[in-house]
Write a structure and sequence with these properties.
Layout lengths: L1 H21 L6 E8 L9 E6 L5 E6 L5 E4 L5 E8 L6 E2 L3 E3 L4 E3 L3 E3 L17 E3 L4 E4 L11 H6 L4 E4 L4 E4 L5 E5 L2 E2 L4 H9 L6 E7 L13 E7 L6 E13 L1 E14 L2 E14 L1 E10 L5 E26 L4 E26 L2 E30 L2 E15 L2 E9 L4 E27 L4 E24 L2 E4 L5 E19 L4 E18 L3 E20 L4 E12 L3 H4 L3 E5 L2 E4 L7 E12 L2 E11 L2 E9 L4 E8 L2 E16 L2 E18 L2 E21 L2 E10 L2 E2 L7 E2 L2 E11 L6 E7 L7 E7 L4 E8 L4 E11 L12 H9 L1
Parallel strand pairs: 1-8, 1-9, 14-17, 35-39
Antiparallel strand pairs: 1-4, 2-3, 2-5, 5-6, 5-7, 10-11, 11-16, 12-13, 14-15, 16-17, 18-19, 18-50, 19-20, 20-22, 21-22, 21-49, 22-23, 23-24, 24-25, 24-26, 25-27, 26-27, 27-28, 28-29, 28-30, 30-31, 31-32, 32-33, 33-36, 34-35, 36-37, 37-40, 38-39, 40-41, 41-42, 42-43, 43-46, 44-45, 45-48, 46-47, ...
Length: about 800
Amino acid sequence: MYMVHKIYHRFLLGVLVLSASLFSYGQNSIDGKVQDEVGDPLAYVNVLLLKTGDSTLVKGAITDESGIFLMEDVAKGAYTVSASMMGFKPNSTESFEFDGSSKLTLSTIVLSQGVELDEVTVSSKKNLYAQKIDRMVINVASSILSVGSSALEILERSPGVIFDRQNSSISLVGKNGVVVMINGKQSYMPASSVVQLLQGMNANNIETIELITTPPANFDAEGNAGFINIVFKERTDVGLNGSYSLSFGVGNGTTTSDNINFNYRKNRINLYGNYSFQRDAQGQLFEFDRNFSNTNALPVNISTISNRDPIQRNHGIRAGLDYQLSDKTVMGLLVWANDNKWTMDAINQSRETESGTPRAFIELLNTERNQLQHFGSNINLKHDFNEDEFISIDLDYLKYRLENPTRYTNSFFDGNNDFLREELTQSDKTTPITVTAIKMDYNKKVTDRVKLEVGVKGVFSDFDNDVTVGTFQGQDFIEDPSLTDISNLKERILAGYGSLDYAISDKTNLQLGLRYEHTDSELVSNVQGKVVDRQFGELFPTAYISHKVNDTLNLNFSYSRRITRPTFNDMAPFVIFVDPTTFFSGNPAVQPAISNSIKFDVNYRSAILSAQYSVEDGTISKFQSRFDEVNERLIFGATNLDRSQIFSLTLGLPLTVTNWWKIQNSFIFLNTKITTTLNGTLFNFEQNSLNINHTQSFTMAKDLTSEINFNYNSPSILGFIGTSTLEEFYSFNIGVQKKLGEKWGTIGFKINDLFDAVKWTVVTDIPEQNLNTVNTFDIFNRTFMLTYSNSFGNRKLKSARQRGTGTEEEKNRVD
């Protein structure tokens, strides 16, 4: 069967590449040349394409060494081209009409030398949220609340995004199965490690965060909810420049967030990098309340309070080198490393009553270390055959090591609080992970209206999981054979895709894509032997159609089919105790889930209205609660639900009250239906929910701005908590920022969660399954934070030629 898939894959790729060669060459672009008064070409001139009438900026370009500039994919319309450079008088063309379907070469633009004036800075603040055909873009730099924050904090304030920090899971518009990417590259790490990475990632280094709910065919088919792509800032200036920021905050403990980044560009070389350090030492409070009937049909209540004192410490470093081998070929090398260490001391007190009478009291002292060390590297080679055709090759190697030793000292008391005994329990989990990925993309504009993209990819993963759980009897450590195991997962994913972009007319565009993925997974356990041996192939079609009704109204429709594979942590045996009768564990029987989704968008000016409906079979609930009546233990673990159906309605409504007061509103309505079978009984759950994200920004004086943000979530059902309900919660955040001048940087002050109101309360009430639990997680704290940031290096630099790394170019293609 595998050979059949392989032959089909090669045949599809061959047909698409052959089709590309049969089409004629064409383009819809505007080019020209800029020179001085004596006819010498001028390099590094800023060239702007402006709409005639309102001078709205459409595109920008920089002239090369020959004074040539090029602007591609220009729509039909009336335009003016403006050229400017320091030391020269700016000059513009006369207004001209462009038909949008050919190549137009303008007359040479001549700049004459003039008196060099003091530098003038022209700035424009982007909207906080921007909707594109397949994604919502969060412009991080547009929010002063992002200064000194982590990537995780930015996402937690984003529309439709919910992070469960305790269980290390992510939900996007009510759906789990989110894949996190960095600069267009998939992270390939467990969800728990992703949360650690995001918590240690400084927002000052981030340009945008993209919420991609309907990914195109050149993205992996993994992830029902879609992708979260974090795009780092990149400088394009010649010379050396950079910036740094320092932050310190106080809440229920202290927190700091510091970073520095640099960029050096000269001739054919671009060298860049950043380093960040974060430390968060703020207390947390967890509460677990469970009611059930024991084997004697008597009502039992177990109430547990966990006072936690965690310290999160993160180091992150990233460095890259781009080298222009020739005018058409660029090679890039990128390396990064992270050391994320989370330690915690906790006191857990658990009290059990039977028919209202105290029966037992347990005090559990918990010491835990969760440390992720991560190294990654990427080599990219991109070659442009011509302006409309290129090939890009990426090779990635990733290595992770996760260590999670935990020690529990359990003191047991009777119902009268008289001491009975002490028990020392210890668990240890070591997980080394290696991932190798290689992919190749080929892109060609075959006619004025047709673009073709094809690609292949292979991902090879090797996960080890060594779990030991046991108790001490004197000096002897006695392993618990039911919870101790060593397992290994080997997974191979081979994929190929083809995507066709066809401009039906000047106002209507169609994109069709087809991706094929073949997965081969094998999980071997020392205790159970081979517990997973899966080989399967799937086709994943995508379709997008967009129509521009006029300059202010756009309509988009999309369809996609996707897969959510269980993570290694979902399947591997592990255990995390809350108390001796409550813990989290894995489940090797979890199967992949397949979803189908349609989405319709209406964009009117800057307002957004989106409706999306998805159906997923075999939805993976990562933390479904299950009650073991024999041992009276509550177990949280991954399992497959029968089906989930989610309808969402999103409204984005930005308002400009005055030139100094702007408002951004986002409303998301969700209708969630879940069908599942528990112990042979069919259950149906349905919940309507609402998410409101409201931001107001003010320019109070020159160089003085402020911002307030309100985020509200009504009661909701989330895929990763299965049949449980997340109760309502809200947060209110405020900030103010003052620019101290060009040389003196910026200082900011903010308060996160002003009313200290963010608490997660998860309720499960299924009497038929003897399940009635209320669990509260108070992870967040009201925090007062002061931040100072500044830049260094040459502040008056000419821009170099516009070129990004291979990853950035790939991102631009799907934009």
